[in-house]
Amino acid sequence: MGYFDMLFAPAKKKLKQFLADDVGAGDRTSALLPEKKCRAIITANENCVLAGAEEAAWLFSFQGCRVKQLKKDGAILRKGSKVLKLDGVNRKILSAERTSLNVLGRMSGVATICSKAATIAGENTKVFLTRKTMPGFNEFDKKACTFGGVFPHRKNLEEMILLKENHLAFGSIQELIAKAREKKRKGEKIEVEVRTAGQAVEAAKNNADIVMLDNFSMKSTGKAIRKVKEINQKAVVELSGGITLKNLHSYVKLKPEMISMGQLTKEAKTIDFSLEVVA
């Protein structure tokens, strides 16, 4: 396998576009420099879980640089850890600097907050990243979360059937689950998002594979989980809405199989990385 075989064509295409958006018609500042070969090092300026090193490395490789990845994605970094060593033409390295650091910083930020969530949740409850991501960066956020021990929910709308509140405005839970069973692919799960205990009971009675309790209070969550399991022991219960790192442990104690957290993308802090020309 080649060095970047884990990066599929769609990801490479997006990375090229990110770079093109930043460079525009040309890097006028770097064009002022005499063209010289040089070496640069990318360093983490704070503690984090690393993600996006493969993407950053590919961007510099695309620019014609020789790249050595000093740390692998998923590594726990301390401030000052060196991540990438680059050898190439100065203009090419400097033109890709900001795009690469932005991707690296965002993905590492997602991986870092996800690692905190996964540690709190432990082994019996799986934490999932939602689709609340920036358009164009969805697959990178979803990849980053895995390095933090969190699972991606649907990558896109094609991946599974999830009946949400606004879908239920156009049909009953019973009716829409029946339609979903007619259309579903082999092995595909049917999930129903519910806002009340009554809806949770209806979803369980109609054999939804996953019942998502959305924005339930702590007290009502425990009761709803018990009702769902009494009706359909095989149904998987997912909790979502208003769950944060601060209250995650309390929800985990209720023993749901899944918890999805919008906070993991909405509040991911961009990690600070820097590039320095060293030779």
Describe it for me?
- Residues 29-108 form the Quinolinate phosphoribosyl transferase N-terminal domain.
- Involved in the catabolism of quinolinic acid (QA).
- Keywords: Glycosyltransferase, Pyridine nucleotide biosynthesis, Transferase.
- With 279 residues, the protein is α/β, with parallel strands linked by helices.
- It has two domains: 9-116 and 268-277, Quinolinate phosphoribosyl transferase, N-terminal domain (Aldehyde Oxidoreductase, domain 3); 119-266, Alpha-Beta Barrel (TIM Barrel), CATH 3.20.20.
- 39% of the residues lie in helices and 20% in strands.
- The chain is built from nine helices and 13 strands.
- A seven-stranded parallel β-sheet has the order 7-6-12-11-10-9-8. Strands 3-5-1-13 form a four-stranded antiparallel β-sheet, covered by helices on one side.
- Strand 9 (190-194), helix 6 and strand 10 (210-214) form a beta-alpha-beta unit.
